[in-house]
Amino acid sequence: MSKNFDVVVIGAGPGGYIAAIRAAQLGLSVACVDAASNAKGEPAPGGTCTNVGCIPSKALLQSSEHYEQAGHHFAEHGIEVKGLSLKLDTLIGRKDEVVKQNNDGILYLFKKNKVTFFHGTAAFTGQVEGGWGVAVEGKKTKEALVARHVIIATGSAPRELPGLPFDEKTVLSNTGALALGSVPKRLGVIGAGVIGLELGSVWRRLGSEVTVLEAAPEFLAVADQQVAKEAHKALTKQGLKIETGVKLGETKATARTVNVQYTDAAGAAHKLAVDKLIVSIGRVPFTGGLNAEAVSLKLDERGFVVVDDDNKTNLPNVWAVGDVVRGPMLAHKAEEEGVAVAERIVGQHGHVNFNTIPSVIYTSPEIAWVGQNEQQLKQAGRAYKAGSFPFLANGRARALGDTTGFVKVLADAATDEVLGVHIVGPQASELISEAVTIMEFRGAAEDIARICHAHPTLSEAVKEAALAVDKRALNF
C-alpha cells in the first residue's frame, strides 16, 4: 500500500531538509528521504555539510585555533601555559558531538513541522496516478510513496584523482581528513580550494608539515587577486607550503605513505613523500540510485540534473536543488533554492539571486566575498571605483590581536552602486552579510558610509572602506 504526499524530498542536506520544512510550513504534506547514518547506524540527516563538511570542519578549525592560540599567542595577553598537550581523541569527539547535535536538530525540526522522515535510499519507479512513484529502501525501511511533486536534493561527492581512489586511510577525501586518529607528520594536499586550505590549516596548527599543490597558475583565482595575495602571504607565514602551477605526475599510495611526483611552475621535477594525502580537486553531482534513466530524467554531460531558472527539471512536477544542479556548490545556495522551490510549488514567487551569494573560506585570516572582483570588472570593461581599509587601523582588530588583511569595496563609477565587497581578515564570514544586504537592495557605497556602525567593531572597517571609495576614509 503506497503512502501519498504532496511533496517527497530526496536528500536531507541543506537544500533538502530546508525545502521539506518550508513546504510543510506552506501547508503541504511532505516526506523527506535520506540514507545517511552515523557510526551507530542512526539517521544522520544534514548531508555532506552537516556530517563531513561545513559543520565538522568548522568545529575542528575552532579547536585547532584554540590550540594555536594557547601555544603561540596567549603569552601576549599575560597568560602563561605550561605543559601544553593535545588530546586528539577529545578534539575529534567534540567534533562528532557537534555533528550529532545538528543531526538531532534536523530530526526535531522534521517532527515539529510534521515532515515524515524515511531513513533509506529513494528511487523513481515511474509516473503513477497522482504523480510519481518513489521506492524507499533502508535497513529497517521499505516503503512505496506517491508524490505529487518530487524535489531532488541528493548533493555531491568528492572527485577522485584518476588511478588513486580514496581509501580514507592514506588517500583522504574530506571525510577521512576530518577523522584522523593521529596528527600526520607530513601531510600533502592536492587542491588549494576551500576544502584543501581549511583542512590543511587544521592539521598544520595541530603539528603537521603541510604542502599544498595547486594546478592553477594563480592562488585562489576565483577571489579578488589583491585578497588572494594577502591570504597567500598570511598562510605561508603560518607555515603552509603552497605551490601553484603544479603538474601532477605519478602518484602511488602504500599502506603508510603516498608518493607524489610533480613538476613546479618553472618545470622543475619534484618528489613528495607524505604520510597522508588529502585530495580536494572538486566535487561531482551525486545521482546514484535515483533510477534517473528509467524516468528519462535529463542530466548534462557532467552529470548535473538539468534545470531551468526556476529549478524545474524536464519531468513534470520534478524539481532539483543544491549541489546536484548548476551554480556554486554552497550550502546556503542550496537552502535558498530549497525555499524558492517550495514556494513555487504553491504558486508563490521564490527568489534566488545568484549575484548576491557570498563565498567564504574559514582559514585564519578568513576570506569572504560577494559580487564581482576587480579582474571581472576590468574584463567586462565596467568603470568602477575602489576603496579599501586595513584592519591594522581598526581599533577592535588591534584589541583582538588580529590585524591581518583589509576590506575592499567596489562601486560603479557613475552610480556608486556596490558591485562587490572583498574581505580578508578576522571574522570576514560575519562581516560579509552587511555587503550582501546592501547589494540585494542595490545600495551604494555612500549608503554603507552613511550608516552608523558601533564602535569599536570590526564592521567599522566595512564603513571605512566604503568611505574610501570616495577618498574620505576617516581613520586611515
UniProtKB/TrEMBL annotation:
The active site is at H455 (proton acceptor). Residues 357-466 form the Pyridine nucleotide-disulphide oxidoreductase dimerisation domain. Disulfide bonds join C49-C54. GO terms for cellular component: cytoplasm. InterPro entries: Class-I_Pyr_Nuc-Dis_Oxidored, FAD/NAD-bd_sf, FAD/NAD-binding_dom, FAD/NAD-linked_Rdtase_dimer_sf, Lipoamide_DH, Pyr_nuc-diS_OxRdtase, Pyr_nucl-diS_OxRdtase_dimer. GO terms for biological process: 2-oxoglutarate metabolic process. NCBIfam families: lipoamide_DH. Gene3D superfamilies: 3.30.390.30, FAD/NAD(P)-binding domain (3.50.50.60). Its EC number is 1.8.1.4. Its cofactor is FAD. FAD binds at K58, T154, G155, S156, D323, M329, L330, A331, H332. Keywords: Cytoplasm, FAD, Flavoprotein, NAD, Nucleotide-binding, Oxidoreductase, Redox-active center. Binds 1 FAD per subunit. It comes from Corticimicrobacter populi. Its main location: cytoplasm. NAD(+) binds at G191, A192, G193, V194, I195, G196, L197, E198, E214, G282. This is Dihydrolipoyl dehydrogenase. One of its GO terms (molecular function) is dihydrolipoyl dehydrogenase (NADH) activity. It is found in: Cytoplasm.
